[in-house]
Design goal:
Shape: globular
Helix content: 40-55%
Oligomer: single chain
Bound molecules: adenosine-5'-diphosphate, magnesium ion
Low-confidence stretches: none
Strand content: 15-25%
Strand order of the largest sheet: 2-3-1-4-5
Order of helices and strands: EHEEEHEHHEHHEEHEEEHEEHHHHHHHH
Radius of gyration: 23 Å
């Protein structure tokens, strides 16, 4: 049996905590997987930033990317490596680059998802470019913002069509506020979206390959308490619906890794924000859910690396559209159809079998690791990067206690 090594690269920016935990856990797994006649080990290293020859080979089998949505040299290196060297990347860089919120709303509306009514409006002002005056003079129509507000009905959310991190988001309760917020919105191209109001539950469903994790979310809480630790806040059917929704979105856009926000009102779960292909992965927000994320990352990236899962370079939407065309089929049935495509694309069955056969020791390794000084130091390093000096100890302790609560739960099960 030949001994071979698969290489996983971490393409990182300011992430601190999860890569330390991820690397340490993979090391402790000490893999030697029997795979198609080979003994396969896995090595992890961090991808560096440097000049590259477009024809140079790539040493990685898989790259886990958290950088290229804003760092374009690395993005272009990744694209080259997918096209020329057969690299597998989480996430598809073309889909990250071009599928902003607007595209995702349109696509998921087309699939029949109950996305709230949404309008796009031209921006209040423009950065000067040579053709601007002529273009606006010839074609820009005067419009009455108040009419759009009335059509949608208040409250409304105004937010950038390509938003993220709550930048430029405001809730608007009347026409006067709508007008003044628009005046202030500058060059941002905005959506006006009917609020899901009142809602009784707000969830974030994190998807990593075929794995999902639903967390009840409290948008009004302090940053470290937004991901709540509540349990049993959705029924089994609701959990399945949220899982199907998230995996449909992720398979449709070729995102291995994404988080989907949905609000529940009047018996319906409305997805409102699901273009998050570089979602929050920090212990300082995920705390008790952080070990789930690290383990899910480990499982999926090792599966992709060991099995040499081929990268889907193009997004094939035709099978989704074929189901969407069945307008007489109830929505829940259509969604099940989309989820079946997602299960095929994420190789759910094969993945679960692989984990059971080759990663059976992950639970124990991770459980042990999250009790070590290395893990605590990783938490502290992240806290120290974000919090003022006098809060570093108390917040490290808070997040650490929550991780230990996760260990207690896991230990019991
Ligand atoms: N249609 C909506 N109904 C209710 N709340 C909303 C709606 N749209 C946005 N929000 C609130 O505003 C926050 C930010 O909006 P979101 O679309 O998630 O933007 P971002 O991409 O910046 O996270 C959401 O987490 C939610 O609390
Ligand atoms: Mg959001």
């Amino acid at each position: 049996m030949a001994k071979v090594t698969r290489k996983i690269g971490l393409s990182l920016g300011a992430d601190i905590c999860w890569p330390i935990c991820y690397q340490e856990i993979v090391k402790r797994l000490d893999l030697a997987i029997d795979w198609q006649g080979d003994k396969v080990g896995v090595e992890v290293e961090r991808v560096t930033i440097e000049p590259f020859d477009l024809r140079q080979p790539c040493k990685y089998d898989v790259v886990l990317d958290r950088l290229t949505h804003w760092f374009h040299t690395s993005r272009e290196w990744i694209k080259k490596a997918i096209i020329m060297d057969g690299l597998y990347v989480l996430n598809n860089p073309w889909a990250v680059q071009s599928m902003e919120k607007q595209t995702t709303y349109c696509a998921m509306m087309h699939l029949g998802m109950p996305i709230p009514d949404t309008w796009m409006v031209p921006p209040k002002s423009y950065n000067p470019v040579p053709d601007l005056k002529e273009t606006l003079h010839s074609y820009a129509q005067l419009f009455d913002l108040g009419k759009i507000g009335k059509k949608l009905g208040y409250p409304i959310f105004m937010k950038p069509y390509d938003g993220g991190g709550w930048k430029g988001v405001s809730r608007i309760d009347d026409e006067a506020t709508l007008r003044s917020r628009y005046e202030e919105s500058g060059v941002m191209v905005m959506h006006l979206q009917k609020a899901v109001h009142p809602f009784d539950r707000f969830v974030r469903c994190i998807g990593l390959g075929p794995q999902t994790h639903i967390v009840k979310y409290d948008p009004g809480a302090a940053l470290h308490d937004r991901y709540t630790m509540e349990k049993d806040f959705v029924s089994a059917e609701e959990a399945e619906l949220l899982r199907d929704t998230t995996l449909t979105i992720n398979a449709f856009f070729g995102w291995d890794f994404n988080s989907c926000e949905a609000l529940h009102s009047g018996g319906v779960w409305h997805p409102i924000d699901f273009a998050n292909p570089c979602p929050d992965s920090q212990v300082t927000s995920l705390h008790k859910h952080f070990p789930w994320l690290v383990k899910a990352n480990v499982r999926w990236s090792i599966y992709c690396a060991v099995t040499k899962r081929p990268m889907r370079r193009t997004l094939d939407w035709a099978p989704f559209y074929a189901i969407a065309a069945e307008r007489d089929m109830p929505y829940r049935e259509r969604l099940k159809g989309y989820a079946r495509i997602a299960a095929e694309r994420f190789e759910t069955e094969k993945f679960e079998e692989f984990c059971a056969r080759h990663l059976g020791h992950l639970d124990e390794v991770a459980w042990e690791f999250f009790g070590t000084k290395v893990a605590r130091d990783a938490v502290r390093a992240k806290v120290a990067a974000l919090f003022p000096a006098h809060e570093v100890e108390p917040f490290t302790e808070l997040f650490w206690k929550r991780i230990q609560a996760w260990r207690a739960d896991e230990g019991r099960s």
